[in-house]
Design a protein that fits this description.
- The longest helix has 15 residues.
- The chain is built from ten helices and no strands.
- The chain binds heme C (2 copies).
- The site of one heme C has 31 residues, from helix 3.
- InterPro entries: Cyt_c-like_dom (IPR009056), Cyt_c-like_dom_sf (IPR036909), Cyt_c_1A/1B (IPR002327).
- GO terms for molecular function: electron transfer activity; heme binding; metal ion binding.
- It comes from Enterovibrio coralii.
Length: about 220
């Protein structure tokens, strides 16, 4: 398994500044929800959420770090003290393995500070009593996930959300494979790399996208 090597070479989830401006705090949360699609591969965010790969994130604003009952946290995360707030979440999401070296959150991180801000503002709403995180911030300008790396089309967002949780999308775009070989690659990702199988309909859309833009 070369995840640690991958961590070194990946550029993080792609998200950078674009031309148009969003200017309500509601939009900040909305942007955050889009950017957080990738988190949902490993985290549930509903009030009755349970642990999947990662602990559920509902109520994160009222929680001490590494304190969801019964979840098997790494020693690295358990060694952190305090509770989650804007600053600790910002540092953790920028680079999980820098914040807590040895963390089990195998995720390259979110490079763009505005994308992190939006994700954190969105997380604030996932609480019985929503937290006040970035409440006074309004305008952020963030490209959709995958923009600037993946070829834009209707299914770009789906592919970005499905394929950027463990490694950079650059690993995807450097390939050129037939639809059949992409199917085998995805099967291998599920069988050997711990990826959750996609819904059949999404699986087909992802395959068509990959074979169309990154075909042989
Ligand atoms: C590939 C799976 C994966 C992805 C993708 C992922 N996480 Fe995690 N996350 C985990 C795991 C596993 C842990 C527990 C880490 C540990 O114990 O070291 C964790 C821990 C956390 C924690 C600490 C929770 C606590 O109870 O202290 C937060 C907050 C968090 N993740 C937020 C996010 C956000 C926000 C995203 C998306 C930007 C994200 N994660 C993406 C797997 C993932
Ligand atoms: C649950 C984690 C996970 C997810 C989600 C994931 N991958 Fe991967 N993928 C990996 C790991 C780990 C490797 C590197 C394995 C290695 O180097 O041995 C990898 C490697 C790859 C490679 C390089 C294969 C090679 O022969 O070098 C490609 C291409 C790839 N992934 C495409 C995708 C695509 C497309 C998606 C989305 C449909 C995806 N991955 C989603 C974990 C994942």
């Amino acid at each position: 398994m070369q995840v640690s090597k991958l961590r070194l070479v990946v550029a993080g989830v792609a998200a950078s500044i674009c031309a148009f401006s969003i200017s309500a705090s509601e939009s900040l949360v909305e942007t955050g929800e889009q950017q957080a699609a990738v988190c949902k591969a490993c985290h549930q965010v509903t009030p009755d959420g349970i642990a999947i790969v990662g602990p559920p994130l509902w109520g994160i604003a009222e929680r001490n770090i590494a304190s969801f009952p019964g979840f098997g946290y790494s020693d690295a995360l358990k060694a952190q003290s305090g509770s989650w707030d804007e600053a600790s979440l910002d540092a953790f999401l920028a680079s999980p393995s820098t914040f807590a070296p040895g963390t089990n959150m195998v995720f390259p991180g979110v490079e763009n500070p505005d994308a992190r801000k939006a994700i954190i503002a969105w997380l604030a709403t996932k609480n019985d009593i929503p937290a006040n995180w970035y409440a006074s911030e309004s305008a952020v300008e963030v490209k959709p996930l995958g923009d600037g790396i993946l070829v834009p089309d209707d299914n770009m967002a789906l592919v970005a959300a499905s394929c950027s949780s463990c490694h950079s999308l650059h690993l995807v775009v450097q390939q050129g494979l037939s639809k059949e070989s992409w199917d085998e690659t995805l099967e291998w990702m599920v069988d050997e790399q711990g990826m959750d199988p996609l819904e059949p309909e999404d699986h087909e859309k992802v395959l068509v996208y990959l074979a169309t833009h990154y075909g042989d």
